[in-house]
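Why does this matter for the project? Reviewers at the last site visit asked to see concrete outputs rather than summary tables. In response, this paragraph embeds two records directly. Each consists of the residue sequence and, immediately after it, the corresponding structure tokens. Nothing has been edited or filtered.
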Amino acid sequence: MKDLKKYSNKTKAAFVLLIVMFIILLSNFNTLQNSKKTNEDINTIYNDRLVVARYIFQYTNELYSIKANAVEAKLNDTQKKEQITAALKNIQNINKLYLKTVLTPKEKTSLVAFLASCSAINKEAKNKNWKQVNYSSNQALQILELLSQIQSKEGKSKLTHSNTLHNDNNLLGQLQIALLVVLGGITLYLLMLKKNKITIKLPEPQSMN
């Protein structure tokens, strides 16, 4: 009976330990996955949002340069065309960098419209239609404003997702601590558990005398 009770306690302890270890391992796995996703979100915010915001700022500067040259009275048509052509080449160089980033569907649509406006600027500059150049430049600037709003929205979304993962990691960490406390309590209880000893007195054989 004593051996059976001893075996039962060990079995219970092993079963509890296995359950707690499995929960802790699962929690650690989820924590690692959340950390990986958080790192991806941070990289996305920098590479595809903050960097792109700088590209949009550079686009804007080039477009304002085009608008200024188109209405500059001190420049003749040839000089205006040269200045605008140089600005459009800078925009093309920025395009190459922009296209290396990860674009959302809305961003792709807006970028196509922006490039169409730049093509219109180039065409009108060749025709020396400076009013139309100014109009197309304003259209391109409006599209850049939409692209800027997309960056802000996407960056905020990624930041919210990253914060959610961070909070989940905190909860999982608290769960692990609680499980370790429970595990320590169970282990201490089993170590201090005193087994009741059952003594069976056998009747003494009666004397034959």
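We now turn to the second protein, recorded in exactly the same manner.
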Amino acid sequence: MRIRHMATAGAATAALTLGIALPASASDAQPSVERSHTVAAHRTAGLGALMASKKVQVFQHAVYEGRNTTFTSSKWDLSKDGWDNTISSAKNLGTRTVTFASDEKGTGAKFSLAGGDREAHFGYRGLPDTTTSVMFR
């Protein structure tokens, strides 16, 4: 135990001499297992909140009918997901703005839905079954 104190004191002296910050493990106090679990749970919850902020449900037919799926990340080319030129309505279930575009990588005609918004008929927005990419901002 005495050797650990001497090593810690030596590390602290070297750090102060060199003007660098000490890592948290340089102190004698170790975080409790309970605190470690609390921190891990907090970080996991933060990631879940980030994912929840990017969430849009798309539908094959107008008025939220037919085949549907939920995207939680941007899709530059919907042909890879089987949704190219088939989206007719959508509900933005997240908090981030989602933009629908008629061409790959967000080019061409486009419109956006703010968090919580929905569109029952893409034809009213100039994208009648022509959506090829979905992007979150």
